[in-house]
């Protein structure tokens, strides 16, 4: 009784251990390793195709060449260049399957010229054909030619992994990627095809592509008498939205507050010509604010041993021989009188 129990236990471990490890394999990674192996193999084929024996073309050499073409020597040369020494996954897969490459090379190549299909899909079974997924290579939703109806990606597509569920592209949703997301409308649709286009920026939901097809207007937009959504000019509606020394800039669906030009004290637009009044150190001249040159307006501004240096909105008094440590600045002429 005890004995048969332990035999059962033992046999079930032996039975299920390999099966269990199959299911924990990362087929996505294995498939991409396999794809790289095959790509490298094809490159190796190309590289060795033109190999000749000293450049001659004698009959003997021709014969020798065609012998080389199918030779074990050529296969070995290709296999040697297949993996970088640093790639564990590649070397592991190659070591485990060297026999398969030999079999293909000597016995299958003619009947099964597509190495990827023969090796990765049919022999070691880590990949599936395009549009198929999972351990048994099931067909993706929407069919293998147009997974997810061309509007998304099928989970595990082309590998032995994944569950075949669609993750839809922007604008599409639903199990089949045939429905349109919020902010999109259906421009074309039948059982197997769907084209969703983006709503006009003024719309909150729509039935077509213009501002006249909105279900509702988005924040910052309002319906005009014809029913189209048009921008609300927040700046004219409520002029006090921005701080002192800022102006309001209306944009489609919104607005922003921008700093006034430094030459302004308060403004209604960009640049010095939109000042309400001029900032200290600037004067109104031909309806724009320009710098006051304190140095020329008052030649006695600085002390005898200093010279005057005008700057935008201000000035310096500098001692010629010394550096800036000895200079004085003025934010405005009035302030300078204190120095
Ligand atoms: C669905 O529409 C597409 C695009 O217009 C078309 O190519 C396809 O044949 C249509 N299919 C059916 C079943 O009507």
UniProtKB/TrEMBL annotation:
Give the transmembrane ranges. Answer: none
Q: Which InterPro entries match?
A: DUF3456, ECM_structural_protein, EGF, EGF-like_Ca-bd_dom, EGF_Ca-bd_CS, Furin_repeat, Growth_fac_rcpt_cys_sf, LE_dom
Q: Catalysed reaction(s)?
A: Catalyzes the rearrangement of -S-S- bonds in proteins
What subcellular locations does the record give? Membrane
- Gene3D superfamilies, alphabetically? Laminin (2.10.25.10)
Q: Which SUPFAM superfamilies match?
A: Growth factor receptor domain
Annotated membrane topology is: Multi-pass membrane protein
Q: Which residues form a coiled coil?
A: none
Its Gene Ontology molecular function terms?
calcium ion binding; protein disulfide isomerase activity
Cysteine disulfide partners in this protein: 168-177
UniProt keyword list = Calcium, Disulfide bond, EGF-like domain, Isomerase, Membrane, Redox-active center, Repeat, Signal, Transmembrane, Transmembrane helix
Domain EGF-like, by residue range, is: 136-178
**Cleavable signal peptide:** 1-24
Q: Would you say which domain of life the source belongs to?
A: Eukaryota
In the Enzyme Commission scheme, what number(s) does this protein have? 5.3.4.1
Its GO CC terms? Answer: membrane
Q: Does the entry feature the keyword RNA-binding, yes or no? A: no
Q: Which family does it belong to?
A: Belongs to the CRELD family.
| Protein name as annotated | protein disulfide-isomerase
Which species is listed as the source? Answer: Cyprinus carpio (Common carp)
